[in-house]
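Researcher: Let's run the pair from yesterday's discussion. Sequence first, then tokens, for each.
Model: Starting with the first of the pair.
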Amino acid sequence: MGNHVYKDIIEQKKLLRHKLREKRNKFVSALPPSILNIAFTNVPRPLLQICQDKMDRKSPIAAFYAPMGSEADPLKLAQFLSQQDIQIALPRIFNKEAGLMNFHLLNPNDLFSNLEIGPFGAAEPHKDAPICSPDIIFTPLIGFNRLGARLGQGGGFYDRAFAALPQCVKIGIGWSIQEESKIPIDIHDISLDYILTEREYIEI
């Protein structure tokens, strides 16, 4: 990929992020509390099957994220899976400049206690929480399409994590309004396996 092409993709992503953030913010702010409270609480049968398949071999680990702003909130889903004997983890950034993070296990008896604020303002585990290698990673996103392309924040944290964990199942979580037919991608972008919105579960 030529340098000018790469720079063009970077600029396309920047513009699309701005557009989709505004679109998401307006969409979420217009939702009534009754809808917000039940969004992303219905666990699709295929997702449960993925977890059950992982349980045949060991106690699986599912990594989630602490949402910020109008991001889709996956934590009720995390609580449900924890009750199904799935271990739950959250990411913790350990090198902001290099775009690197680890996943740390949470206490199943008190999932979201003992969290602290990370360098970008998101809640993350304490550094002493056990580091793990998740079997399933639920990732936030700004945009997606039905080919599995994901537009993230631009730091490359999740793409590096996916590259380091090639066997993990990659599931994007976002609002249906974030779907975009064309997502600019470069050689470092890793596609998702599934996408969960408030309306549907999309298998790539």
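Model: Moving on to the second of the pair.
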Amino acid sequence: MHKPVRADLRDPALCEDLSLAGRVVRRSGSGFRAVRSILEDVQPVWVVVVLAALVLSMAILFVSEPHLVFADYRIAYYPAGSMVIHGQSLRPLIEKGVTGFVNIPIVAWLFTPFALLPVVLSAGVFLLCGIVGLILSCMLLIRIAGLTGWRSHLFILLFAMNGPLLYSVKEGNTSHIVLACLIGGLVLIRRGRHGLAGSLLASAALLKLPLLLFGLYFVVRRKWSAAAGFGMTLLVAGSVSLVVFGLALHAVWFDVAVRQFSGHSLASFNVQSLQSFVLRLRTPAPALFDWHLLPLSRAETLVCTLVSVALYLTTVLVCLRTMQTPRKKPSMASPDPVDLEFMLVICLALLTSPLSWTHYYAWMLIPIAFFIGGRFTAGSSGVGTSPASLVACLVATLLVSLPVMFPTGVVPAVTVFHERIGTSTYFLGCVLWLSIIAVTVNAEQRRQAFIARALPLPVFESARLPAKI
């Protein structure tokens, strides 16, 4: 039987080990206390809101389109990254058109890290990246729209239930990630970091071509640093893409992804452009589950041209009005002109692009956040100046937020209405949002003119404060 050995506390090595163990225990205790403190600070209402948001989003994901989960990722993004890794040409994938890879070839490099993993594991990692982007987007929107209390709770629920957003997640697309880029661009513009904002928005435009409209907006508004950042980012990305993949592949990509949509469009239910809306008004209605290009007739082309011109003229007039409105600290009583112009460009890009997929309309969460914050219809209660303004914003929010579903087995009358109008709710909601923004800008300009006449000049000039996040 061994005798117990008494430790010598004078041993320097033993003392050092005991000291280290003590520090570990103290730090662990501090860490546990910090976690407990955070958990104690969490209000029960936030727990309820987050749980409700998770339940609602999962329910909508379960019943909404598409039935083939992560279809875009599996048929386009993952194969593109895999082809780049194995030195294969992207041409067969690009030539598939809307059922293949539609981005400029250099974008395929973004998916090479994912293609190193098995497809299922890769999809899971991509999903986690998207969730991080969603959390960031929601937090930034709550902050820049000034949402507090019940307004922030309501917005989180609307964010979690947004049909186009969940459609992008379930489809395995990048529109919900681009949303974070758009919000980041707005934040940078508000902070005066126009060059970085232009670069970030150009990166978003490389993923979603309709956002190239921001480049034109920066030039028209003479935001030269933003235009330079936008243009340089596109120039560098385009040059690298040409060097790496060659001119021939880019000619194929341009022909498939851009040129063929001149005078043609898709009538499928998940395309929400002006041209698609006009095509779905045909009698008999075209197939809504057909993704082949249909030519526009002369009359349809004329209608689309006239409406597009009207939308662009409206946007230009609104921008001219905002140029006459002094920039100030945004409040519930008066929205910032920069915010309004930014949202207007997004609406115009969605409506006039030859190809606007339904998941693009997740970007309409930006005006929805400002509506919840009272920036469009501010009154004494912070909700609305009139029933009409409140109803318009509510209807617009509903139309662009519906779950992406295609009902079957309904009565013929409902089917006819749905084929022609019901499938275009997102497009119609965006038109309504553009109108709301235009009316808001006009009302704000008249309000500022009234204040300028009513108040002494020094008092009015004191309102010209920089708008920051």
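Researcher: Give me one sentence on the second I can quote.
Model: Residues 145 and 370 are 5 Å apart (CA to CA).
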